[in-house]
Design a protein that fits this description.
14 helices; about 70% helix; about 325 residues
Length: about 325
């Protein structure tokens, strides 16, 4: 689930915090980096568990309606299609989900405003009405409505972002608000993988796409820290009219991390590294920072080539 792009992001964020705290050690920074991965994985389980929370909320609302109908002696037959959704039942029964939620003591208690907001929007949606009023309902129909809920009601949801921000504090997590939409895409991927004959032992996504990513992350962090003075010197000597003291801290961290990867990891194509850090700057730095970072990196690498320095088995073009 956590791929190399997300690993790079976490390393940059960890380095940014590391340089802000002058007393922090590499060991402490490494520990924070590993925790950040675990926090992101917990968000995956929390957002998958939203299926259970929303279903339970819908069940309570239905029970309240039944009670009101009885109190007023009104005739009302509840439509139980949504609360009896087969995909939702599979997710509720999933042992890996239940174990992670229990082990990490994860709960939506502080995020209930998001649950009620999504339920209200769901009831108002055309796709919910079509699902509930259809003559028949297949397992694929049950899967589809949950994909639609995540895609249309949870993605870019400000109420969800506020709820996750509150949960970050309560549960001592990090990056939940910034990671939400990315992790929602992984939840949708998980839903697509479920089949009607899935059992409670159905595996969910692993924390990492590849276990080598953990080693890459810690190596990149260490090499960036160890090479700080060298990379800082390279950057400062290529500013060309820029005041070194006025360079944004995040821009400098992105530049140093990019240099550490380009110069120290021979198995990663230079173009991949360049593109990844330029894209990262578009998200986490100023509006024009990606152009500045691209320009500085290009100048540094061109000069290294002109000085006859080779790496990754070829000269920089």
């Amino acid at each position: 689930m956590i791929n190399r792009t997300m690993v790079r992001t976490r390393v940059v964020q960890t380095l940014f915090a590391y340089y802000k705290d002058e007393g922090k050690t590499f060991g402490a920074a490494r520990k924070e980096l590993i925790k950040s991965f675990a926090d992101t994985y917990d968000l995956y389980f929390m957002l998958l568990d939203f299926v259970n929370e929303l279903t339970a909320y819908a069940q309570r609302e239905m029970e309240d309606q039944i009670a009101r109908a009885r109190a007023t002696h009104s005739e009302w037959t509840p439509n139980r299609r949504f609360v009896q959704n087969k995909l939702a039942q599979q997710i509720f029964d999933n042992r890996a989900l239940r174990a992670r939620i229990q082990e990490q003591q994860l709960a939506w208690d502080s995020g209930m405003p998001a649950v009620s907001d999504v339920y209200r929007k769901l009831r108002e949606s055309d796709f919910y009405r079509e699902y509930m009023e259809a003559d028949s309902c297949s397992y694929e129909d049950d899967k589809r409505i949950w994909r639609q809920i995540y895609q249309y009601l949870l993605t870019d949801n400000e109420v969800l972002a506020d709820a996750l921000e509150e949960l970050e504090v309560v549960l001592d997590k990090s990056n939940w608000t910034t990671d939400a939409d990315v992790i929602i895409s992984y939840v949708i991927k998980t839903i697509k993988r479920f089949k009607e004959d899935c059992t409670p032992d159905t595996p969910l996504l692993e924390m990492f796409d590849n276990e080598d990513e953990v080693q890459f992350a810690t190596d990149l962090l260490e090499k960036a820290i160890n090479g700080h003075e060298e990379y800082e010197h390279l950057i400062n000597t290529h500013l060309k009219g820029w005041d070194a003291d006025r360079i944004a801290d995040m821009d400098r961290v992105i530049l140093e991390t990019a240099l550490a990867e380009i110069l120290e990891f021979e198995d990663i194509a230079m173009t991949i590294s360049l593109n990844e850090y330029i894209e990262l700057a578009k998200t986490y730095s100023g509006d024009k920072s990606y152009m500045f970072i691209n320009g500085i990196l290009t100048e540094i690498l061109r000069d290294l080539k002109n000085e006859g320095k080779f790496f990754k088995g070829f000269a920089i073009k």
